[in-house]
Design brief:
446 residues, alpha/beta, Aspartate Aminotransferase, domain 1, Aspartate Aminotransferase, domain 2, seven-stranded mixed sheet, four-stranded mixed sheet, EC 2.6.1.19, Aminotrans_3_PPA_site, transferase, EC 2.6.1.22
Length: 446
């Protein structure tokens, strides 16, 4: 075993267990627990807990650490800005970092249209504002979202999200005028067809059917889509499907919102996942890896749409905080200077290859391997023929990997997928060791 995965105590160790006792007495039990250990420090793709155990991080803070933990550029930018300015509220006293970040994001978001941006604190807040803007611009109320989607935990974002437990259970009533349609999912085709050779787009007709049976297109302000379903199990939307969706939105005057909160900033091998399809969004939401660990999110869209809202209609106290903006600018510098997109594509090839090797060893319960670039996932089933989701086996694999020093995250509508969100600049030996641990963990529960 490499030094990258150093386990010195049982997991969780004694210090983590003591902190867990304090947690239970201080923090609401409504906040979930993915791993039973407490972090002390992290650097690159390695995370060390309070007991001195070091883990290879394939979770990246749920997709936040694409450029790695404690990036020197981000740390330096944060230190420098914190000594100058911590907060003014951009709507009270403006600062240049906000403007520069908007300029750079406008230039990066795909499409030739003139763009505008503004900044908030989280992906959910970005989604809420994107829908607000679309409703204002169109004068319509309805929004269409997809199954297997995740858009956040605030009320509107939660309503848009396509999974009940744990995100929606017990939290209704939900926001009105939100409608849901099936999403492409080759392994479990919503049209009931055999899509083992790849999605054929037969489920696209569900949107047009919804226009007839559920909501008239003249009432629809926006359709919101993740180019790769995130919490839904890392299911890519085919490029042709996104192009068809673009055409449909244009035909009916509907705003196309592309949610790149998890897929953005190199996670799929391009800066934004929608670039694979050549589609220009009307509005794009960004967050997670945008700030290199600091809370910041963006709403970027066509100038005509973004500028339609009256002055003062958009705002937030902390959004686009000067320190967070400085961190985000450092993230963009890192992409430019370290060829992280090139590294992401090479990383994706290695991850997908390793997962397919695991599937070849266990075709009876590794039902599907899929993804886009290093945004990859394996789906576990009890039987290859019935495709019955196997959440229990999935959980055992995660725990087996944790005991060997690998942090993994689950995903999927049924909680039966393992996804990879390691830093894009992970060292080769750390990646190889992490993938080896993953393979052993799957073997151990065969």
């Amino acid at each position: 075993m490499l030094d990258s995965a150093r386990i010195k105590t049982e997991i969780p160790g004694p210090k983590s267990r003591a902190l867990m006792e304090r947690r239970h007495k201080a923090v609401t039990s409504g906040v979930g627990i993915a791993t039973p250990m407490f972090a002390q420090e992290a650097k690159g793709a390695l995370l060390t807990d309070v007991d001195g155990n070091t883990f290879i991080d394939f979770g990246g803070g749920i997709g936040v650490m694409n450029i790695g933990h404690a990036s020197s550029r981000v740390v330096d930018a944060v230190k420098e800005k914190a000594e100058q300015l911590t907060h003014t509220c951009f709507y009270v006293t403006e600062y240049e970092e906000y403007i520069e970040l908007a300029e750079r994001l406008n230039a990066l978001v795909p499409g030739s249209s003139e763009k505008r941006s503004f900044f908030v604190n989280s992906g959910a807040e970005a989604v809420e504002n994107a829908v607000k803007i679309a409703r204002y611009y169109t004068g319509r109320q309805a929004v269409i979202a997809f199954e297997n989607s995740f858009h956040g935990r605030t009320m509107l974002a939660m309503t848009l999200t396509g999974k009940t437990d744990p995100y929606k259970k017990g939290f209704g009533p939900f926001v009105p005028e939100v409608y849901r349609v099936p999403s492409p999912y080759a392994y479990r085709c919503p049209s009931g067809k055999d899509c083992s050779g790849g999605c054929q787009g037969d489920c696209f007709g569900a949107i047009e059917k919804a226009f007839v049976s559920t909501v008239h297109p003249s009432s629809v302000a926006a359709i919101i889509v993740e180019p790769v379903s995130g919490e839904g199990g890392f299911i890519p939307f085919p490029d042709f499907y996104l192009r068809q969706l673009r055409e449909l939105c244009d035909e009916h005057g509907i705003v196309m919102i592309v949610d790149e909160v998890q897929t953005g900033f190199g996670r799929t091998g391009k800066m934004f996942a929608v670039e694979h399809s050549g589609v220009e969004p009307d509005i794009m939401t960004t967050a997670k890896s945008m700030g290199g660990g600091l809370p910041i999110a963006g709403v970027t869209g066509k100038a005509e749409i973004m500028d339609s809202v009256h002055a003062g209609g958009l705002g937030t106290t902390y959004g686009g905080n000067p320190i967070a903006c400085a961190a985000a600018l450092a993230v963009l510098d890192t992409f430019e200077e370290e060829d992280l997109l090139g590294k992401a594509n090479a990383l994706g090839d290695k991850v997908m290859s390793a997962m397919r090797e695991i599937q070849a060893r266990h075709p009876d319960f590794v039902g599907d391997v899929r993804g886009l670039g290093p945004m990859a996932a394996m789906e576990f089933v009890t039987d290859a023929q019935t495709k019955t989701p196997d959440k229990e086996r999935n959980a055992k694999i995660v725990q087996a990997a944790l005991q060997e020093g690998l942090l993994l995250l689950t995903a999927g509508q049924y909680g039966n997928c393992i996804r990879t969100l390691m830093p894009l600049n992970i060292a080769d030996d750390e990646l190889e060791e992490g993938l080896a641990i993953l393979g052993r963990a799957v073997d151990s529960v065969a």
